[in-house]
Write a structure and sequence with these properties.
Layout: H1 15-20, H2 28-32, H3 37-46, H4 48-51, E1 61-65, H5 76-84, E2 88-91, H6 104-119, E3 123-128, H7 130-141, E4 146-152, H8 166-173, H9 180-187, E5 194-198, E6 219-223, H10 235-245, E7 266-267
Parallel strand pairs: 1-2, 1-3, 3-4, 4-5, 5-6
Antiparallel strand pairs: 6-7
Length: 278
């Protein structure tokens, strides 16, 4: 009698795919809360006297990348804030951010080289949403020119469908948002101090997509109460940005959320829901 045919075991799905099933884009209620962005801008103006009392920066250059479907006008408030705090902010000067189309990434490289040469020192990179992907990738390519990276609501990990913008991204960029090889590279953190500022009330990007892996001591995650659209002018995000830019990259420490800060900020370096991705 012949032995029964053994059935081959079903391959187990990778941990990141399994976790991605539990990450869904923000729901309708959170999307509706994006309408609070103008109030965040007004709040920034209201607390400017308080923010002005923060220690001044050291005057180094900061390059700011806009989000998907936005241009340098969207980062005016952020760049004005940086200038008021003794930094030298610069726009990316590539028009509307419609994804990494032909010439965009090379334009980013040239902009960084140009600013590094102009200022004679490393520059910090700040990216809002998709702009944060550019900032992270440029820092990976040119770590000798980059001081630190700060991202705002940037979906650098997780699954593309965990955002409410992936269809728009594919349409305007003509790029495949589901390129697994590319996504694996994007998830890797830059080799310089890297901060992700995110919000659990983000109506565009699932917050889990903005979490740096916990095992890298030069990365951190700071939670603020903000909308996605208003994050670049949210006073709490501005405070965190100014605090991070003042850090000496050679003696960098993670954001301290103790004392009075604990009422406004939270830090997440090892949230249970995403640790298995790494």
């Amino acid at each position: 009698m012949s032995s029964p045919t053994r059935r081959k075991p079903t391959p187990k799905a990778p941990a990141d795919e399994d976790t991605a099933l539990h990450s869904v884009p923000p729901g309708l209620w959170l999307m509706m809360l994006e309408a609070r962005a103008p109030w965040e801008a007004m709040a920034l103006a209201a607390v400017s006297p308080w923010l002005s009392k923060m220690p001044s920066g050291d005057g180094h250059a900061v390059l700011v990348f806009p989000g998907l479907g936005a241009n340098d006008v969207s980062t005016l408030a952020l760049r004005r804030f940086l200038k008021q705090h003794n930094y030298q902010p610069h726009a990316w000067k590539q028009g509307m951010n419609l994804g990494p189309r032909d010439g965009v990434l090379e334009g980013c490289r040239e902009r960084i080289r140009e600013l590094h040469k102009e200022h004679g020192s490393k520059i910090s990179l700040i990216g809002w949403s998709l702009g944060g992907i550019y900032a992270r990738e440029m820092a990976k390519e040119m770590p000798d020119l980059v001081r630190c990276v700060i991202t705002l609501g940037t979906p650098f990990t997780g699954h593309p469908k965990a955002t409410n913008a992936w269809r728009f991204y594919q349409t305007v960029s003509r790029q495949n948002a589901h390129d697994e090889e590319l996504l694996a590279e994007v998830r890797k953190p830059p080799p310089v101090p890297t901060t992700s500022i995110y919000s659990k009330t983000d109506g565009i990007v699932a917050w889990q997509c903005s979490i740096n892996p916990p095992q890298h001591a030069h990365t951190e995650n700071i939670e603020v109460h903000a909308s996605h659209i208003g994050m670049g002018m949210n006073p709490l995000a501005m405070y965190a940005i100014a605090d991070r830019l003042r850090q000496d990259p050679d003696h960098w420490k993670r954001f301290d959320a103790q004392g009075a800060r604990r009422w406004f900020f939270k830090v997440a370096h090892q949230p249970e829901v995403v640790t298995q991705w790494y």
